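Exercise: predict the fold of this chain.
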Amino acid sequence: MEEFYRGFAQRARDLAEKADPFTRRRLLDLAKRYDAKSKPAGSARPLPPPRTSPPSTLFGGAGEA
């Protein structure tokens, strides 16, 4: 997936070379966002660790039928 976004970023930069100033700015901003997506997952915010067991409050005490 990283290669996919890197390619899109390069395409946006290539188009920006021939675009008017307003469009160039937008394309370069788009390229920056694609570059950020192409970074390895380690640079993103880490996910919380998965739960190994459900909270005890769900199964505590006598159950109702």
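Check your answer against the key: Residues 17 and 40 are 27 Å apart (CA to CA).
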